[in-house]
Amino acid sequence: MPPVTIVVPSGKGTLLQTGRGVAAGDVNVTWWAAQIQNLDNTLSYNDPAHLPVYLTNNVMLYVGTNPTNCCVIGFHGASEVVGHGTGSGHGNGNQPVQTFAWASYVTPGFFNPVTDWALQDIHPLSHEIAEWGDDPFVNNTVQPWLTPTAPQYGCTNVMETGDPVVGIGFAKGTNTFEQGPTPNGTQVADGYYHPEDEVFMPWFMRLNPSTSQAVQAGTGGRYTLMGSLNPYPRLQDASHRLLTN
């Protein structure tokens, strides 16, 4: 669809620039969420039978009043229904519920290219679409979990398949968008897209062994899409102890 212009007022956003010279918009998360919900209500082509995906280029969100409390790079949800005003997020099979997802395309070099190598381009988008598929109304819960790979989520019972492995991903396909060097001349982009890894249901359920497909380097069932390619042993298969809270 045609692009939509959203003007961020003074006090609701600023710019961030990394040491590599990569700049990004930094916007208040509460204000931004209201803009996304407004689009759900006003765009005539939205309907509950389809998932609207709002994609921005290098827009990050901060929590609270401190712009350095960054960076949220995507979210999905369900609340408002086109033509029905503010709708319930719980249709119970009786009314349509508009689900949605927002994610930002991340310019290579904004995040640390060594410690956060996979956190670029479509990483946030793949995260949100995968989570939407497993929990479209954000009301599926599991046993509480926590993991040192994503301490920012604390101990949570939400079934978000991308949260435990945020920042972990792999190179795939051919990417020609924004693949040049960063403004300070550092060549970070590698010509690939970087989808995120995703955890499977057996990880949330603490199943041992996992009932999912066997890992590449053994016969045990994997706990994530990447299997043995996930760099954290406790996220690979049941031969490693599961970390629980």
Describe the model:
- This protein is 13% helix and 18% strand.
- The chain is α/β, with parallel strands linked by helices.
- A hairpin with a 7-residue loop joins strand 4 and strand 5 (70-72).
- The protein has a four-stranded mixed beta sheet with strand order 1-2-4-5. A three-stranded mixed beta sheet has the order 3-7-6, with helices on one face.
- It contains three helices and nine strands.
- It is globular.
- The protein has helices spanning 29-42, 123-134, 201-205, and strands spanning 13-17, 23-28, 53-57, 59-62, 70-72, 74-78, 99-105, 141-145, 156-158.
Describe what is shown at a glance.
13% of the residues lie in helices and 18% in strands.
Per DSSP, the total helix count is: 3
Spatial strand arrangement across the major sheet = 1-2-4-5
Q: Strand share of the residues?
A: 15-25%
Uncertain regions: pLDDT < 50 for 5+ in a row? 81-86
Number of strands: 9
Helix content: 10-25%
Largest sheet: 4 strands, mixed
Question: Quick check: average pLDDT?
Answer: 90
Structural class by sheet pairing and helices: alpha/beta
* CA-CA gap between termini: 44 Å
Apparent shape: globular
* Order of helix and strand elements from N to C terminus: EEHEEEEEHEEH
Q: Mind telling me the C-alpha Rg?
A: 19 Å
